Amino acid sequence: xxxxxxxxxxxxxxxxxxxxxxxxxxxxxxxxxxxxxxxxxxxxxxxxxxxxxxxxxxxxxxxxxxxxxxxxxxxxxxxxxxxxxxxxxxxxxxxxxxxxxxxxxxxxxxxxxxxxxxxxxxxxxxxxxxxxxxxxxxxxxxxxxxxxxxxxxxxxxxxxxxxxxxxxxxxxxxxxxxxxxxxxxxxxxxxxxxxxxxxxxxxxxxxxxxxxxxxxxxxxxxxxxxxxxxxxxxxxxxxxxxxxxxxxxxxxxxxxxxxxxxxxxxxxxxxxxxxxxxxxxxxxxxxxxxxxxxxxxxxxxxxxxxxxxxxxxxxxxxxxxxxxxxxxxxxxxxxxxxxxxxxxxxxxxxxxxxxxxxxxxxxxxxxxxxxxxxxxxxxxxxxxxxxxxxxxxxxxxxxxxxxxxxxxxxxxxxxxxxxxxxxxxxxxxxxxxxxxxxxxxxxxxxxxxxxxxxxxxxxxxxxxxxxxxxxxxxxxxx
Length: 478
Fold this sequence. Notes:
By secondary structure, the protein is mostly helical. The chain folds into 4 domains: 4-92, no CATH class; 107-257, no CATH class; 265-328, no CATH class; 354-471, no CATH class. 62% of the residues lie in helices and 3% in strands. It has 22 helices and 3 strands. It has a 3-stranded mixed beta sheet. Helix 11 packs across helix 13 (265-289) and helix 19 (398-407) packs across helix 20 (414-427). It is flat, with a radius of gyration of 38 Å. Mean pLDDT is 84; it is low at 446-456 and 472-478.
């Protein structure tokens, strides 16, 4: 008998055909090696030969026991049937057209759980499919039956005994995603929920909301009190200030206050007092940018409020918006990037920004003179600007820098040549034209001669002298 074979309802072909149902419903969640074993066995079914389980294990780089375990994995899903153990033979079965892939297990495995959960959810008879959902959840995770029963009990206490099983599954999956799968961890988590229930009930009464507490309410409340570190009195004050009557809307309001660094009653009142002004600023910015947004609340939350928190006033923001419009950066995202760049440069007022632009323009005009002197025709670059900043930091005037550019005229790489000239003048304390003209003519700008990196009167050092100097020197400091 062949090691792997098809059941009679699967037709043999000369190709290895993989059922689309297997790819869609089983492959995405299966272990990698389990997929390898299934596909290789499928290949053997359609290409009969003398390969046995030992050969298969060797081909896949697995042990014989691992191959057996993976075939048992697929047997639990009803995709194969283990015919005999010695010799080990299996039979591939038809892949069922089912959106829910239930693993097979002995009925008595969850017998106690089934009885207990039916007692907890007492107002209706649990269906087989519902029980299967619970079983599969425990089979595919580390959630223990006793822990799931505790979750069921808590959900029933919140929603009533006629609760939907989908709600229980959703809560349980949330616990699993956070690693809360044992009775000890579930008990600890639920104890925090019970402590919060009194405060949440008070909030619901303040909102005039007449409903039972939801698990999602507890998660949101934990965010307010644990992540945001807000107290109950602040939350109740926000309800009173905003007169909101909706828990979800309250959550958005508190998120908004937190993002704007409002943590006290006074700060919250001041924020909402200024919000009307922020809405007007948002409207003016949009108009200047040439865009239209009907609902401005998100514009205030995402852009205007953070900008004003940085220290920008309405006039400066309007100036920046006009700049962005003229530079074809006509979106709030582009303006936000511009504002952040200005903030990093320490430019917070219109006059600061205007001075920066003026200086930038004047610097580029000066660099253009340098480029003209050295015979280069191009626009100024950031490299040019960085070098100009360096030369000026050496206390050279623009007049002296232009003199250096004249002496660099005709050189192949004028920037390093100018830097070398200026460094030489700096070492000789020559910062004025008079002192510079008194120095020997120690440079060449002729392209017909091979350029040297040394000056005529420059002192030379032996390797020993250089090593001695380096040993005695600590570090270069600007």
